[in-house]
Amino acid sequence: MYQDPKRVRTRYGALNLDEYEARLIDALVDYTGIERAALLRQLVLKEALETLGLGDLDGPSVGQYAG
Question: Superkingdom of this entry's organism (predicted)?
């Protein structure tokens, strides 16, 4: 079904947030219209790329969906 079976997403981990953090994420979801799981995946991967010094790669970002 998939051209590359390694691209199939599976649950990798859980994220525990306090009420304030959750409200911030929910506000960002409401603002951008991006599904929560997709938004969190995008934020995590963006941070990982920036940490590795690869943050300048072209790709969609949360800011492109906002506004």
Answer: Bacteria
Three-state secondary structure string covering 5-42: HHHCCCCCCCCCCCHHHHHHHHHHHHHHCCCHHHHHHH
Residue 46 belongs to what H/E stretch? helix 36-51
Give the C-alpha separation, 32 to 22, whole Å: 15
**What size, in residues, is the chain?**
67
Q: Which of 13-17, 55-59, 61-65 has the highest mean pLDDT?
A: 13-17
pLDDT in tens, 10-41: 989 999 999 999 999 999 999 999 999 999 99
